[in-house]
């Protein structure tokens, strides 16, 4: 076996120390790059190890056979740690303001199956509360590309009955209980597979499903936010009177 000779004036022990230090530095650099691009190992290491050990996250976003199990396993760290198990949809960095009291944005990559699974039943950890309501839409088929367009109808619009097909779909939104920052709201809704999100300026976060128009409900309903609890109580008392947008022209008809 051949051994490397130390340069003159440098002992083999010193060389070994330098080699170990260089190796550790290289490993640390690789981990830092990996963490910045994908997974926060310092925060997620323990919970991810548990979920991998129990095989709770052995699936992908395409078939989503264990999405809910993985979401529950990662628990409140899901939005921070979903990248560690390849369960984070890709973000979209473009956004558009819709109103003065909230910020809204569509996601480029959506996972409606994941969102449907997570909002089908009440969250066991009470992290969010779901609301589902029917929406009437116009269903148009465009040839030759067979594109599908869904739009809200008003009574003022003149439509051809022969070309019009009305369908009723369920819009589902999820209001997070706790107040959160804009970036936290965006990442939380993205991790749930939502189609879009609405972040209210009081800190309330609303994740919006694929069949919702005009970014869901334009009212803060988060139960533990300053403006959310009051709105929630008001709506519970007057649920039948709440307007989801389908009666915008009722007053004009009465005139």
TrEMBL record:
Residues 38-94 form the Tsg N-terminal domain. InterPro entries: Tsg (IPR006761), Tsg_C (IPR057726), Tsg_N (IPR057635). Keywords: Developmental protein, Glycoprotein, Secreted, Signal. It is found in: Secreted. One of its GO terms (biological process) is regulation of BMP signaling pathway. Pfam families: Tsg, Tsg_N. GO terms for cellular component: extracellular space. Residues 236-255 are annotated as: Disordered. Residues 98-226 form the Tsg C-terminal domain. Residues 1-38 form the signal peptide. Belongs to the twisted gastrulation protein family. This is Protein twisted gastrulation.
